[in-house]
Amino acid sequence: MTALTRMICPWRLRTRALELGRRTLVMGVVNITPDSFSDGGFFFDSAAAVAHALALLDEGADLLDLGAESTRPGSRAGGAAGTSAAPAVSAEEEQARLLPVLEGILKARAEAIVSVDTYKAATARAALAAGAEIINDVSGFFWDFGLAPVCAEVGCGVVLMHTRGRPEEWRAQPQLEPDELLAEVRAGLSASLSTAAAAGVGAEAIVLDPGYGFGKRLDENYALLARQAELLALGRPLLAGLSRKSFLGRTLAPLHGGQDAPVEARETASVAALVAAILQGASIVRVHSVRAAVEAARIADAVLAARP
User: In the chain, N or C: fewer CB atoms in 10 Å?
Assistant: First the structure.
């Protein structure tokens, strides 16, 4: 850790490396789903998704994150917990949605750095073969035990997120005190790091994500954000995904007649949250609106650089 409160180090990807920590990198989200909480259906058509991805790159995105299965609260991502139920989206369907978009982006912008948001080993293997550089696993290598060996074999970059339970369990999670929450997130991410190491995934390939909204009750997310920098003790850089999350909408409810602010009214709150995340050690922010994020990150980086 440096005086900037975040690590400065290389992040090894499949064919290249990125330097993290000197400035915040902005990851633009492309949801190729009919049901994502934020923009489900807007970019379900492959051509629309490719066009949106290219627009995000033009707005200044450093990398893209493509997702073809929603992990919104209540969804059956990873299959129902404790059962043999299949996930809502099969690997075959996920790949049918994802691969044409990935290929279209790289055909238009061969230099683009593309991450694929999946927990399925089969989808990861297909996406990496098609040119993806990074696998972003919301389960932290715990929903498909075949995924870590695939990432090790290919040598791609990896984002490991902390998820507290599965989506259908999130609303029933007990409330935790801040110390308990930090301990649980740290323990979960540490377990993910151990799983990665056992499979042969090098530490230099890994970025960690606290998993805002993923099994954290509304106010717990603020407790986690306020102490996010403590997670740097795990020895890897951090990615923060706060864009348009429901806890932001709940906080804005008094400004919206007592109702949670709708997704489209959470942009300013999203920018405020990403600045807080950068000041708390995030090297990468995952966002839906890239231009505003790029500008906000520039200011937050200037604050970090001015610290004694």
Answer: C
**From the candidate CATH numbers 3.20.20.20, 3.40.50.1580, 2.60.40.10, 3.40.1260.10, the one assigned to the domain spanning 10-76+87-306:** 3.20.20.20
* Dist CA 158 CA 136 (whole Å): 6
Rounded to two decimals, the pTM is 0.93
At 133-176, the pLDDT tens digits run: 999 999 999 999 999 999 999 999 999 999 998 888 887 788 89
Sole residue written with tokens 């709940």: 250
Residue 74 CB neighbours (<10 A): 12
What is the set of active-site residues? Answer: 245, 286
How far is 297 from 308, CA to CA, in rounded Å? 19
Q: Write out the E strands in the chain.
A: 9-12, 17-20, 25-31, 63-67, 114-117, 134-137, 157-161, 206-209, 238-240, 282-287
Residue among 38, 90, 121 nearest 135 (CA): 121
- Residue of 40, 244, 209, 225 whose CA lies nearest to 137: 209
Q: Round to whole Å and give the CA distance between 149 and 155.
A: 10
Report the largest interatomic distance among the alpha carbons of the chain, rounded to a whole angstrom.
54
Q: Where are the beta strands (DSSP E) in 69-141?
A: 114-117, 134-137
The single-letter DSSP state of residue 49 is H
**What digits encode the pLDDT tens for the residues 285-300?**
999 999 999 999 999 9
What secondary structure letter does DSSP report for 15? S
237, 150, 132: which is closest to 189 by C-alpha? 237
Q: Which residue type occupies 28?
A: G
Q: How many residues does the chain have?
A: 308
